[in-house]
Amino acid sequence: MQVFRSNGKLLITGEYAVLDGAKSLAVPTTKGQSLEVSEGETGLISWKSLDENDNIWFESDFRINEGDFQPLLNLDKPEDKETAKRLQQLLRSCFRMNPAAFSDKGYSITTKLDFNRKWGLGTSSTLVNNLAQWLQVDAYKLLEESFGGSGYDIAVAKSDLPITYQLTANGPAAYTADFDPPFKDQLFFVYLNRKQNSREAIAHYRNTPKEDIQGLTEKISGITEQIITSENILEFRMLLQAHEMLIAKAINTPRIKEELFPDYPGLIKSLGGWGGDFILATGGEEEQEYFKKKGYDTIFSYKDLIK
Prior knowledge:
The protein is α+β, with helices and mostly antiparallel strands. The protein is 36% helix and 27% strand. The chain starts with a strand and ends with a helix. It comes from Christiangramia gaetbulicola.
């Protein structure tokens, strides 16, 4: 049996703008996903996905047929049908990149998450990176051929340290970042527990004039560099607040603090797609109580969630 593991991710700076070449800061999480691969019945992939409590959240067999992977079980739930469809798409990409791995072979594959898959910490990216490790193929190319995206989450999945990530003319550029804020005991993460339709925000961003996008990416890149070297919480807050204002204007969306937490005394920074998943907040135990009183129970300190 072979076992592979990849780290989950949080994007601290550069959401939206990372797609246009902004230098972004991303951090790996202590929580991730593993992939176990054993030999199985020839011509068949038996797939099982476990959640953080070892409960099966998806299971199906796929028949390997000349690069196609047809699910053999009758999947009644719409969610299961969608998962099977995405896996089928991913396995087809795997076959195109390494057909020899599937020739006259079969596998039993089990994935195991350390985190709730609704949290947005990288269920897809950790899977892609694990499959790429197993098949010894380019994880960025596999992502591009399957789910798409900037690829920053693949870079984080491979790293045990914070990174800067930037799309360049020569492809993805990921470098280890010396980001270890001395004030990290004053940082924590809150899960908002809501899904946000970001299509309008993305559409508005895509309609932004090219020269404005270029100016935005340059400003975001500069903020990223300054955040990495910031030595006190006041400077950190000021930089992230400037970042929030720039992105809010670019996507024509109010900041999450204005929308949900206008009376919060500290900083609130959206992470990833605005309005869903996690936010970064500044403060201590008293500030964490603010969110708990409002019904937000999934809260992690920086040291508990970030590697």
